[in-house]
Amino acid sequence: MDKIWAKDVKEGERAKSVFLVARKAIPTAKSGKTYLSVTFQDKTGELEARAFEKVEELAAAFEEKDLVEVEGAIGAFQGKPQLRIESLAKVDPATLDAAEFVWAPPPEPKKPEKPGPSEAESAHWTELLALVDCVVDPHVKDLIKAFLEDDDVAARLRRAPAAKTVHHAYAGGLLEHTVSCLKLAHRLADHFPQVDRDLLVAGAFFHDLGKIRELSGERSTEYTDEGRLVGHLVMTAQWIHDKARRVGASRDLEHHVVHMVLSHHGRLEYGSPKVPMTLEAMLTHAIDEIDSRVNSWLNLMGKDGGNRRWTDANNVYEQPIWRGNLPTVQAEKKGPAPELLTPVIYVPRNGAGAPGQPRPPKKPKDRKREPRPQQAAAEAKPAEGAGEAKAEGAPAPAQAPREGRPERAERPDRGPRDQHRGFGGGGGGFGDKKRGYTGPRLPGDKGPHRPPEKKNLTHNPFAALAQKLEDAGKPAEEKPASPAEAEQQQAPAPTPPAPQDQPTGAHEPDVAPEPAPAGTPAPEDKPAG
């Protein structure tokens, strides 16, 4: 077989020739098996070779820089020819010309120098420096400049993208997004004087700065390991903490700036460890949302897909976006005069929502409650004790028997009511708690007890005290007899005291009168009229 040079080897053929062993190794494959990896060389180039059988035997037959005669089939791996070693033998170098095996690899192509910043990037960087230079607070300005004066941060910020796919996903997109947010921050500070301009500018500058470490690559953007594990919000917060210590910023200033960074996504479910709790943090979230969303929508409107009037719905928002003609005059449209764009100063109103102002008391609503059907029916019926209030022996009104029912048999006479247990004194029935039964009690009687005496209280304790002092200075007066005592002292037919004889404010006695003798009807048991 004729001599075959390394550059002339072709896939699908067999080769048998002498080569110089440039490199030799025994790596382990993914399957766990070892194989022999050899790089052969001659004056025309290099040829990769592999052996998967008899690895130890073949490897022991030669070393690097030896001349060997090798035979095997030519295959391909990753687009390059590869020799499958079948047999291999060491050759005496004295019988060969050493110049045939000397190969100098061609010099690597010179990498093109990284182009400098474009005109747009230079313009954005100049705007960024001018927008930051407007900060008045020296500590805020020193904190921002500590990042801008860092050469590594400045170089990354000029070329970094702001995202992988959604918005400003191109080289220099982060700088463009940051400058746009800084302009919006200054405009909002002009519109709302209550906002701290320096803090809002700091929030617009720092909110996405950590993306220069979260994302890598200009053409093919990918997340770094630090970006996946930590995220640009926490990375920026840690970065601010380190720089704040060096420039001597206060902890309060650091906390407010870090809060704007940690809350600029707006919601916990969107990745923010905190929700906005300051006015500047809320506006930082709004500024980022407006600029990123506008850039994203304009990019989708400029892409192919969908029809002339609508974009394709296959996007991050999962909806089509209008890009057709608008129903307005398409002409140059300018804003109002500068004197009309005056700041808006919100002053708290002296109303229910103003801080520090008590809320006016609510007026009670006049509601007329209508009686329930059960109550109305109860009012229409006669009193529950009306039958008992009638005189003993008074005939009850006869009721016609209902149709379809047999007539009830008459009950035997049980004698006078007052002879039955629990009915003395004309009170309510036995055990009637609702009507306050206070009749005689027999041994073993478990009926309701006598209700406690009610004290005559007044709603004004000072008036009660004054009345007590006034009564203490007067001579003792004879206490008027109660109706129960008067009933015992007077004739068997007692009469209630006249209204004018009763002292003002006196209450009805809580003690029931003694039961009358059997057969004598109580005053309230007499028939009306």
Largest sheet: 5 strands, mixed, barrel
Helix/strand order: EEEHEEHHHHHHEEHHHHHHHH
Number of separate strands: 7
Summed up, the helix count is 15
Helix and strand composition category: alpha+beta
Quaternary organisation: single chain
Give the CA-based shape.
elongated
Low-confidence stretches: 381-394, 420-434, 498-529
Mean pLDDT: 76
* Strand residue content: 5-15%
Roughly how much helix do the residues carry, as a percent range?
25-40%
Radius of gyration using CA atoms only = 53 Å
Q: Distance N terminus to C terminus? A: 151 Å
Strand order of the largest sheet: 1-2-3-5-4
Characteristics of this structure?
single chain, 30% helix, 529 residues, two-stranded antiparallel ribbon, 15 helices, disordered C terminus, alpha+beta, elongated, five-stranded mixed beta barrel
Structure commentary:
By secondary structure, the protein is α+β, with helices and mostly antiparallel strands. The protein has helices at residues 55-59, 119-132, 138-148, 151-159, 173-191, 197-206, 211-214, 225-229, 232-247, 251-262, 279-302, 373-380, 386-389, 461-472, 483-489, and strands at 14-25, 36-42, 45-51, 67-77, 80-90, 215-216, 222-223. Strands 1-2-3-5-4 form a 5-stranded mixed beta barrel. The chain has a two-stranded antiparallel ribbon with strand order 6-7. A hairpin with a 2-residue loop joins β4 and β5 (80-90). α5 runs antiparallel to α6 (197-206), α5 crosses α11 (279-302) and α9 (232-247) runs antiparallel to α10 (251-262). It starts with 13 loop residues before the first strand and ends in a 40-residue tail after the last helix.
